[in-house]
Amino acid sequence: MINIRHKLTHLGFRSIFYRLIILFVSLSAFIQITLFLSTSVLMKHIESQIKTNYEYSLSNLASTINNLFDGIYQSNYLLALDPNFLKIFTTEYAEDDLTKYADYTQAIRSLSRVKSSSNYIDSAYIYKRKEDIIISDNGTYLPEQFYQNLFDTKQYPPAFWHDFKANHHLFTILPPSQTSGNDRNQKESTISVVQSTVGGRYSNNLYIINLKAEAVRNLLRSYKLTPNSLIMVSDPSGNLLAASQIIDSDLHAFMSETLTDPHEKFDMTYQNQQMHVIKYSTNFFFRDATMIVAVPHSDITSFLNKMKNWNFTVTGILFVISLLLSILFSKRFYAPIRSLVQTLQRSEHKKKEELPFNELEFLNTEIRRILMDVDQLNETLSYSLPIATQHFLGKMLKTSFPYDNKTIDDYLMKLGFRFPNRFFQIGLIQCTFRKPFYDLYSEKFQTEASDTVHRILQALLPKKHPTYILELDTNLFGVLINPASAIDIDSSSYFELIDTLFRQDEAALRIHIGMGLVHENYKGMQISYMEAMKALWRVSPFDSKRIVYYSEFDHEEPRFMLNKTEENILTNLLVAGKREELMEQLKQLIKANIDQSISGTSMKQLLIHLYLIGIQVLKQKNISFEQLAPFETSEFLLSADSGSVEEISGFLFGFFDRVLALSNPSPDTFNIQRFRAYLDTHYAEEITLDILADKYNTSPKYMSRLLKNELGTTFYRYLQELRIAKAKELLIASSDPIHKIWEQVGFNNRNTFIRTFRNLEGISPTDYRKYHQPESLSL
């Protein structure tokens, strides 16, 4: 009987394992079937859409070819702006007119620019039929020399061009022909685009652009959706203009047969292959054309068959892999469940007869019991302070709270809180975020930084005594320790850990820590807080010590130290302009007062005394007090907050720096006329407010305000206007390309230059040059 129950127990454990396998296999099978069905539907959709997709491809191809001819038309329009070219094209020169040779030279340059404007253009030339001369991008030739030796096209002999009539069409596109002649164009095919009108000016002469047939063929090939498909282009007369493969007699016959069929989509046979044919009517810059696509049926079916076979193979492999993974994951998930049940059974010291048949029911019962134990534990051990309690304790520490211990205890009980012990010790942690912190991190991170520090302090709290974190002020945290007695308490390890942790980021965040002594009752808590404040004031920014412990010998509060000799030394150093010696003297004076543990009030008195020394020096130099930005100075001096030692030190150093700059002006002292001359010389260089502030010994913020007062606008806008003015001069006076001009005037990229130019001038740089540059330069 015991053996049977033992087997049933094991079967109960195994039942979860089998359930997990069935769950994972079912999910995997569902995913595989869904993927298989969706892939099958997708292949059906591909099979139905692959033929119609060619219509979209042909539409894009027609747009591309239309852009090609649009570029040719744009070159026609640009040539119409060239008076020399128009003169060559429309005027018949007298035989003894020597001016024609200069015009010929200018026309050759214009044709060279047309040729280089597109990779599709092989050559461009003018055939002046009455004068019997050809002007090409390579030079001038007689027609017999040109057509027989350079561009010998059997399909278009010299007589063809001599008798050609364009009938005033914008373009006449001729079928491709193979050329021969010199090595450059041997056995190459070209498509000739013939024009007898340039810029609306009709002429008996011909303007011919030869397109590279191979380049057009490659363009058609790039729009093929299957490897063996064909793309052809014909004109309204049935002439084959271009194709995705080399044109031969079979291809001519196939195209002619497709054009005679009245349907737009039909099947035909080409070279023993069954083809699906699509005809697409379009036009290339006002010239009608027909585009024909022939897709072999074998391309479509072979592609889809490969996809179907691949779909079956992948589905099978994935199912086998998913089955193996299901078994593996089931074992992984089941192992901790079995171990947990066995552990809980051992903790209950149950006999074998009491082992559960169903581990799920057993786990449910045990989890409920554990949750009840956790609730009881939380009620006993929770030292987390509610928000209202934190506010009350912070107010009690920072002010002389008049109530006795019983009144405070009663109020805390109403808030649902009580201290377990009657002894208290306060530690204060001052966080000072430095300039690199604001430079490196985003505003969102800066806003959340104080909360992050609070969470770190909370997470590292020691467990030996009840300890709480109070946020007393901005970036000022109080550590409230509630020991059972005034002896046998060592909180230094916690604060040393905090100091070590934050020293790694001291460049961005500096931590100062002050510790008070252990005292009894709430009055003693306030005394410990005051002791911690005094200790915090003794942390000097000039040495590496970051933790100061209050001692019983620190009761007497000393006055700040500044004797008459030190005053005279500071005054003389200021008058003499000896900055390094002055700053060293000031640093020693501040450190000496900090070492004496003076209070914040005394430190503020020292600050005012030193400030008056600087004012006295300015009076001796007959310098106006307003130049010190008095509003910012008064705001700091008259504030109710005494400020930290680091803030006071920073203010004093900045103040004496300003007094030195005013009383001992250097050759680089700011002068608006010299500043304008400096910008006129260096406008193309990288110039920022930080660079200017360093040059004129001031801060970027002050420099920005000064320049706005002097220039009547912001420094950035003044610099942009100056650079655009220089760019306008270059656009008018030179023929340099736009990209060289924006580099010469100091812009970093083309988009910024064009956007700034439009904002200030209302038009683009190209249009500005077009409307303002003299005609001699524009040509």
Automatic annotation (TrEMBL):
UniProtKB keywords = DNA-binding, Membrane, Transcription, Transcription regulation, Transmembrane, Transmembrane helix
Q: Tell me where in this chain the HTH araC/xylS-type domain is found.
A: 673-771
Report the GO molecular function annotations: DNA-binding transcription factor activity; sequence-specific DNA binding
Q: Which residues cross the membrane?
A: 20-43, 310-329
Q: Which PROSITE patterns match?
A: HTH_ARAC_FAMILY_2 (PS01124)
What InterPro entries has UniProt attached to this entry?
A: Homeodomain-like_sf, HTH_AraC
Q: Does the keyword Cell inner membrane apply?
A: no
Top-rank taxon of the source lineage equals Bacteria
Please name the Pfam families in this protein's record: HTH_18
Designated name of the protein? Helix-turn-helix domain-containing protein
**What organism does this protein naturally occur in?**
Paenibacillus dendrobii
